[in-house]
Amino acid sequence: MRVLISGSGIAGLTLAYWLHQYGHTPLVIEQAEAIRRGGYAFDFYGTGYDVAERMGLISTLQQQQIRLDAISYMGASGKPYATLNTTLMRKVMHDRYMSLMHWTLEEALYNTIVNDVEVRYGRSLTAVKSSPEEVSVTFNDGTTEAYDLLVGADGVHSNTRHLVFRAEKHFQHYLGYTFASYPLPDHYGIGRNWNNYIEPGRLASAYCSNNDGEIITFLIWKTANQDYIPREQRLAHLHQVFAGMGWITSRLLDDVSDSTAIFMDTVTQIHMPTWHSGRVVLVGDACGCPTLISGQGASMAMGGAYLLAKALHETFNYEDAFLRYEQQVRPHVEKRQKKTQDSAKRFDSNSLLGLCIQQLMMRILLRDSFIRLLRQHFGGESIL
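The structure assignment produced for this chain is given below.
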């Protein structure tokens, strides 16, 4: 089958690889003009690790992983009150764990298909018409083409979902937070660490990237405002939100020279009654975004893409494949979404007492004797 995949992120590239392996002809479109090299870091384990292993990518990813020594929670004085050593984290995950930059995984996935699958950059959809025989699409350059199937792998703000289902507002579940991320030179002695500082309703963190001498700043805060903030206004907004915050937060903001370099988005899940319509199906964040708080977005995107391709290969028709894929993946997505909602509530320490209790629990739990509990907390079980 000829399958059009909208989105060259983790879900789209994983799906393209497996569809090609199963003898289909995928084509990927991406609205960006080239491979994106921004974004933030994430912990890679569980389902995503299993899929990457089946793709022969583990050695490549290990060479490009972030050389992280520890994840620490800092006091206002700059001293850590709780630390999770990455050696312990690897033990928790049975040594099937690494920290990656988002673009590192995307680039590795792209390299698996570059010689076999066409990827068109600067291309997006403006119209979709699905019939019993085919799905016809119109691109942003005005051209029209027909495919057997269309897969929306274009993220939490999916254009495919908007065109085929309904507008995002009908499916979004805002968790009450907004986050920002941007790179900086390491003038703060972060080294090979991931340091976090929490105050009621807001968090600031800085961690090493896989570029020598560079750190990534990550900020998240509670707010009822979901409005889009133009790039040129973002730095001023962050100064306002994080005014008076302890640790090195003010320095992390003062050293930003270009407000437009700041990536910012809401912490929003996607809840849908169904993931498919006619010859169109959604995968990854487009249909079941768990949010970055879950730490499971990349893994679930890869797992969902793998199981969708497998279902198309093993079933008689696409309707049965879509149904099987959704029945296999949806329960795991919803479980992680619920867990993330609970985590977001725990982060919502709007009192100093709540924050002190949270700090005490971290001191107690981040040690070898609680490996089983930590494993349950991080949700490292595979869905494959």
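Interim note for the steering committee: The chain has a mean pLDDT of 91. The domain at 2-171+269-378 is CATH 3.50.50.60 (FAD/NAD(P)-binding domain).
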